[in-house]
């Protein structure tokens, strides 16, 4: 018999009844039922119920056991007594009668329980992450993550992609966030950077003649944490393809993501053909470029109706006169809501930095035409209200809210209101995956702080219309071959058809005020490579963490990452970041303004590095 186990804790079935087996695992729960002890023995694979009665030679040892002790148990497999079966357990029809128990690893008093799913403070969960990971939900999330990554690899290779590994120590490159810098010991005063993304390397792979690249790529960004963004590091399915159009990228990526959500989505419906929504239309209809298409509400621009001379509501007229807009957000069936519903939404909007949400509650006159009620209804004549109702697709029994401000701010608050109203009225179908493409991002935007035209998204995207567009069009009217994938209101990835032509690149940067010297200094390797025959290429990089978060039904990335950092980018388990010792700083030719770490005591051998294992 094997030293520790003949079976795992999830393997035994009725076919094993009557056989002697050996299990090993953790004591998940220990219950005393009138002198008979029951232990739910847990390992990576499942749980088996162990029974120890006072006649068992293992009873005295079993009485000493506590939660999370690691034990070996020997004994025969029995059928559970009738009426005690557990259909929710794979091993729920059998139990192990303990004839012998060996303690393999006793456990100290637990700082947090493992059994159950009680919520505990983040600080405790992260400091004792090894205990947190034993909990069933989190354990299953991490297994799901591994299975998703394995499936992604299989699907990419099935489409002819080759996996490559790109450098981790590289040069600093502006990707929209701060770099993590690594000082060089052999080059005093110089630093490597951890890659924010393998962007330049994957494009260089295309220039080198490798046609289809992918990688489950680690990326490092020194940015603040959010629920859908891990501080420090994250992983993405990094993809690049040569000799492709935007449609080719879409045709490649859609079956991969659709297949992943179908494989691991537990039967929830998945979009079969991803809708393509131009950026400008998304900002109008949904108030953002990350629309949740499970929400049926659509925002409407009603600025022209409030501009009507018959409308006397001065607040909106002033906004429009100053170049702003008025956006309408429908609220189907909201006429039956109490006054508190409208007041709370108005207060919420003010808390979001808005002046508030105007609203009209809709009733009907004797002809069935809409009649408005509410604070601003008296300022809107019936014929104008009818046009507003038609634009917002509302009628009697509904309500309509209004956001008025400069376009960007009005879009933002209208988008947030659309989400809130959709959820409060229970209009959002939570049990499905709705995916779409956002396309036609503007190449440039106006930088109000610097009073200049600047890149709005990715400076290395190919402008639609190429060099001719750059030379003949107003820069603020030029779109780029840039695209995002969005699922249920979460941005999964950004991508683009790349600007592979040095002449087009020089002009694109010149419009934003950057001369060729900037290209040489900041992106010299890639810029020079493009001068030696670069193929048209494009790619994308869906976020693995966010995909798994959606599949697991979690709202925070911490729940699907093995060892995440806290909101302050601290690893509470390993104690990172930590101060360097004076000796380490001297070797790196650095000085620190913070208090130095203590040097090891004389004669103390440094701890061996685990990385050679």
Structural account:
The chain is of the alpha+beta class and 613 residues long. It has 3 domains: 14-105, Nucleic acid-binding proteins (OB fold (Dihydrolipoamide Acetyltransferase, E2P), Beta Barrel); 120-274 and 536-589, 2-Layer Sandwich (BirA Bifunctional Protein, domain 2); 295-428, GAD-like domain (Gyrase A, domain 2, 2-Layer Sandwich). The chain is 28% helix and 23% strand. It has an 8-stranded mixed beta sheet, sandwiched between helices. A 5-stranded mixed barrel has the order 1-2-3-5-4. β19 and β20 (452-455) form a beta hairpin. α4 packs antiparallel against α6 and α4 packs across α16. Pfam families: GAD, tRNA-synt_2, tRNA_anti-codon. This is Aspartate--tRNA(Asp/Asn) ligase.
């Amino acid at each position: 018999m094997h030293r520790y186990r003949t079976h795992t804790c999830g393997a035994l079935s009725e076919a094993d009844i009557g056989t002697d087996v050996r299990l090993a695992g953790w004591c998940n729960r220990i219950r005393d039922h009138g002198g008979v002890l029951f232990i739910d023995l847990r390992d990576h694979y499942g749980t088996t119920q162990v029974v120890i009665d006072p006649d068992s030679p293992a009873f005295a040892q079993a009485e000493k056991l506590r939660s999370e002790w690691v034990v070996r148990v020997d004994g025969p497999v029995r059928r559970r007594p009738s009426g005690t079966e557990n259909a929710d357990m794979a091993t729920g029809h059998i139990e192990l009668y303990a004839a012998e128990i060996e303690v393999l690893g006793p456990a100290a008093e637990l700082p947090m329980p493992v059994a159950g799913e009680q919520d505990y403070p983040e600080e405790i969960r992260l400091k004792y992450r090894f205990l947190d990971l034993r909990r069933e939900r989190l354990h299953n999330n991490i297994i799901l993550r591994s299975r998703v990554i394995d499936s992604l690899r299989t699907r990419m290779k099935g489409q002819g992609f080759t996996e490559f590994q790109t450098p981790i120590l590289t040069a600093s490159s502006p990707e929209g966030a701060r770099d993590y810098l690594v000082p060089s010991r052999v080059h005093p005063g110089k630093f490597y950077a951890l890659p924010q993304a393998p962007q330049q390397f994957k494009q260089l792979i295309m220039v080198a003649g490798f046609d289809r690249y992918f990688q489950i790529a680690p990326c490092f960004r020194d940015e603040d944490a959010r629920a859908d963004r891990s501080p420090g590091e994250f992983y993405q399915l990094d993809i690049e393809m040569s000799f492709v159009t935007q449609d080719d990228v879409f045709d490649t990526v859609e079956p991969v993501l659709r297949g992943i959500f179908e494989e691991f989505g537990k039967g929830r419906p998945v979009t079969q053909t991803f809708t393509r929504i131009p950026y400008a239309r998304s900002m109008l209809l949904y108030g953002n470029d990350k629309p949740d298409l499970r929400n049926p509400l659509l925002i409407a621009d009603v600025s022209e109706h409030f501009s009507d001379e018959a409308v006397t509501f001065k607040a909106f007229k002033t906004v429009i006169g100053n170049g702003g807009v008025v956006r309408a957000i429908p609220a189907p069936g909201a006429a039956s809501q109490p006054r508190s519903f409208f007041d709370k939404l108005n207060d919420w909007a003010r808390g979001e930095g808005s002046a508030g949400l105007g609203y009209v509650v809709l009733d009907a006159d004797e002809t069935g035409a809409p009649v408005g009620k509410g604070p601003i209804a008296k300022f809107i004549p019936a014929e104008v209200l009818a046009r507003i109702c038609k634009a917002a697709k509302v009628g009697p029994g509904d309500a309509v809210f209004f956001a008025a401000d400069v376009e960007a701010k009005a879009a933002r608050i209208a988008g947030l209101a659309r989400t809130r109203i959709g959820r409060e009225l229970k209009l959002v179908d939570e049990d499905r995956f709705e995916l779409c493409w956002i396309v036609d991002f503007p190449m440039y935007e106006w930088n109000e702080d610097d009073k200049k035209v600047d890149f709005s998204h990715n400076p290395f995207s190919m402008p639609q219309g190429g060099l001719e567009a750059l030379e003949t069009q107003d820069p603020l009217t030029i779109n780029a071959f840039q695209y995002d994938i969005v699922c249920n209101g979460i941005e999964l990835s950004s991508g683009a058809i790349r600007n592979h032509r040095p002449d087009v690149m020089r002009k694109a940067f010149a419009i934003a005020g950057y001369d060729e010297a900037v290209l040489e200094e900041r992106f010299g390797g890639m810029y020079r490579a493009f001068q030696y025959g670069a193929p048209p290429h494009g790619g994308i990089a869906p976020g693995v963490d966010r995909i798994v978060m959606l599949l697991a039904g979690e709202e925070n990335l911490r729940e699907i990452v093995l060892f995440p950092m806290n909101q302050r980018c601290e690893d509470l388990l390993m104690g990172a970041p930590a101060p360097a010792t004076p000796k380490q700083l001297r070797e790196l030719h650095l000085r620190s303004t913070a208090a130095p770490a203590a040097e090891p005591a004389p004669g103390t051998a440094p701890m061996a590095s685990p990385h050679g294992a």
